[in-house]
Structure prediction request, 400 residues.
Amino acid sequence: MSLQLRFDDAMLADPYPFYERLRSQDPVHWDESDKRWLLTRYADVTSVLRSPAASSNRVQVVLHFVPPEFRRIAEARAKSMISCDAPDHNRLRLLVSKAFTARAVEAMTHKIQHLVDGFLDAMQARGRMDVIADLAYPLPVTVIAEMLGVPAEDRGLFKKWSDELSILAGGGGSPAALTLDDYRRNAQSYEELTAYLSNIAAQRRTQPRDDLITALVQAEEAGDRLSEEEFYANTMLLLVAGNETTTNLIGNGTLALLQHPDQLRKLREKPSLIASAVEELLRYDSPVQMTTRVLTHDLELGGKQLRQGQMVVVMLGAANRDPEVFSAPNRLDVERADNKHLSFGLGSHFCLGAQLARLEGRIVFETLLRRMPKLRLEGPGPQRRRHFNLRGLQSLSVTF
Prediction:
C-alpha cells in the first residue's frame, strides 16, 4: 500500500493504521509532494524535539506556499513564542509563564469545577447534549478568556476566530493543501481579532487589571521587551492554543471511553484512576497530531541524511503508538503506568498550558462519571473536524 500521506475521510477518521505502516516500513520518510521528512518513531521524534539543530522558526520555509498577498500576516503570526527559538522564545515565554505555574493552575480548581457544573446543570433536564458544543468548547475558552481578561460572552467570536486562525496550523495537514479561500478566511479573522485586541490593549494601558493582557501590555510599554506584532501574535496564540488542546482532549477522551466500556467501568469503580486516565486519553488519541521543525544543520536519522533547511514533521500521534515504548499501544488502558506520551511536546517548547489542560480534563471526566452514570452515545455517531493536525470532533451527541 502507498506510504503517501493523504488527508481523506479515512485518514481523518483513523490515522493510526497509516502511522503503523509508515513506522514499520519507512520511519524516516521523505514526503516528495510537500518536500519534508515525516518521523513516526518515538526515538526519532524525541531526538528532533531535543536537537539544537531543529529550529521552530519555520516561517521562511513555508512562505513559498503562501500566496504573496497573505505573506505579511503569516510573517506577523510567526512572532509568537511557538515559532521562535532562544533567546526570543525564552523572553516571550517568561512573560506569561507565571500564569501557568502549578500553583497558579491549582488555584483555578474551584472556578473550573463551578464552570463544569454550570454547563452540565444547563443540560441536565434535557437528558442529552452535544459534548463539544455544550461543554468541551465553552469550558476552556471561558477559562482562557478570564485569564486573558476578555469578556467570556464573546466566546462565539473567539470560536470563529480560533477555527479560522487554526487553518494554517494544518487544517489539511499540508501547507500545499490550503486554498485561497482558506487564506482569505484566515486573514479576515486575523484582522478582526487584531482590531479587537487593540481596543482591549488601549483600555488596559489606562485601566490595568490583574490579567494576561495587562501583563503583556505593560511588558510592551516597558520598552523593547515586546513589540506590537509580538503582542498580537502571542495573545492570539494563547487564545487559540488555550482552547484547542482541551476541547479536543474532552471530545476525543469522552468518545474513547464510551467506545471502551470496560475502561469506563474501571473509572466508575475507581475514580482515583482519573489522573492516569487523562494521560492515557492524551496518548491514545492525541489532540495535536504533529509539529514541525526546520533543520539548521545536517542531521542523520535512521540511516538517512536530513539536510540543512529541510522541514521535519514530527508525528506526535504516531510516536504515542510506538510499540517500542508503549506495550499494546493500540489498546486504551486507563491504568497504564509510566506514560511518557508526547501530546504536549518535549523540550523548551513543551506546552505551556499542559497543567491547565490536565486539570480541566480531570475535572470534566470526574464530574461526567459522577453526575451522568448512564452516559452513552446517541444518534448517527460523532462528526470529525476536517482538521488533521488539531484532531478533534465537530459534534458528539450523548444521552444520560
Remarks:
- The longest helix spans residues 228-259.
- The chain has a mean pLDDT of 92.
- The CA atoms of residues 112 and 312 lie 37 Å apart.
- DSSP finds 18 helices and twelve strands in the chain.
